[in-house]
Design goal:
2 domains; Alpha-Beta Plaits; 3-stranded mixed sheet; 167 residues; alpha+beta
Length: 167
């Protein structure tokens, strides 16, 4: 029961933080295992069906593997610096390409800094050099509010051909 109550404490944050999700799954699986053992024990005591014990173990293992598969996938994606699943990189690129004065966007990279923070780096070609502090602040604020990107590094280039990274 204590593991179940503890899991409930983590339920609110388990959708937004991978660490909290891991703690939630750990507590929830402990609660399921405990409940499964108690129920299997009662069935064995009442019926004498000893085969219930290994079947219960297999069911509990399957529930744990299925429940933690997503956590494993998310952890690997984070370790590989993949674009977080809740950020659409095409929508981010589309937004950046529509900004006044931007002729081209290249070297767009989006990756997780932590389980709750997202970073972005990008090169914007702006031939007139109009990337003022106000412009950069506005872009960073929009990226944060719309896409959840908290740390943006934007490089303004007047001539993208001078950048060896440009296509």
């Amino acid at each position: 029961m204590i593991n179940g109550v503890t899991a409930l404490l983590f339920v609110r944050g388990h959708k937004t933080d991978l660490n909290i999700k891991g703690a939630f799954l750990h507590m929830a699986s402990d609660a399921v295992v405990s409940a499964g053992v108690v129920i299997a024990g009662m069935i064995i005591l009442l019926t004498g069906w000893h085969w219930v014990d290994p079947v219960t173990s297999l069911v509990i293992n399957a529930v744990i593997v299925i429940g933690t598969w997503g956590l494993l996938r998310q952890s690997i994606a984070m370790a590989l610096d993949l674009v977080p699943p809740d950020v659409d990189p095409i929508a981010v690129r589309d937004y950046l390409e529509t900004l006044d004065g931007v002729n081209a966007v290249h070297d767009l990279h989006i990756w997780p800094l932590s389980t709750t923070r997202i970073a972005l780096t990008v090169h914007l070609e702006m031939p007139d050099g109009s990337g003022s502090d106000e412009f950069l602040h506005s872009v960073c604020q929009h990226l944060h509010q719309t896409f959840g990107i908290e740390h943006s590094t934007i490089q303004i280039e007047q001539n993208a051909k001078a950048c060896s990274l440009a296509p």
